Amino acid sequence: MKNDDQYKKTLRVILISFMGLLVILLLFATWFSIQLTNVQQNIRSQRVTVVKGHDGSPGTTIVGPIGDIGPRGFKGETGEVGPIGPQGSQGIQGVSGQEGFSIKGEKGDPGENGANGRDVELCYINNTSTLGQRYSGDTTCNPIPVVQDESNQPEETVSWNQ
């Protein structure tokens, strides 16, 4: 029980530390995004042009605002397909698996012959037209089991006239 309490305390400290780290990362990401936006605005607000003298001597640097961004240009034509690159190197060979084993056993000795079965007789149940079955020598006529098709609906009972 004492180990469970220690485990829970340790897990709680780790979770709180992780959450604190996430908060710090979120604050840093927000600060970095603001700084990046400020730099981009400063770059957009200035335009630097260097004018050279007639004889190629260094000229004057003029700083002015950047103009509006122009409309997007037309899409160019699709270029030709480049050549096919060389085939990559062959990957490493995998480890071979173990050989399988045969489940089939050796052929066994032939079994002994079974006892002779009893003959089945057809009969009428209680002197009706319903057909039944019984083993030779029995006096009770049993109903034939009803067969059902795939729809689980029983087939009609087999009957015939005496």
Give a quick precis of the structure:
By secondary structure, the protein is α+β, with helices and mostly antiparallel strands. It has 1 helix and 5 strands.
Number of strands: 5
Q: Give the mean pLDDT.
A: 78
- Taken as a percent bin, the fraction of beta residues is 5-15%
Order of H and E elements: HEEEEE
Strand order of the largest sheet: 3-4-5
Class computed from helices, strands and strand pairing: alpha+beta
Shape: elongated
Q: Report the uncertain regions.
A: none
Q: Termini separation (Å)?
A: 84 Å
Tally of helical segments: 1
Sheet of most strands: 3 strands, antiparallel
Report Rg: 48 Å
Helix content: 25-40%
Could you outline the blueprint of secondary structure elements for this entry?
Blueprint: H1 2-44, E1 47-51, E2 60-64, E3 120-124, E4 131-135, E5 142-143
Antiparallel strand pairs: 1-2, 3-4, 4-5
Outline the structure in words.
The chain is α+β, with helices and mostly antiparallel strands. Among the domains are: 2-64, no CATH class; 119-147 and 156-162, no CATH class. The protein contains one helix and five strands. The protein has one helix at residues 2-44; strands at residues 47-51, 60-64, 120-124, 131-135, 142-143. Strands 3-4-5 form a three-stranded antiparallel β-sheet, with no helix packed on it. A hairpin with a 6-residue loop joins strand 4 and strand 5 (142-143). The longest helix is centred in the first third of the chain and has 43 residues, at 2-44. The chain starts with a helix and ends in a 19-residue tail after the last strand. The model has no long low-confidence stretch (mean pLDDT 78).
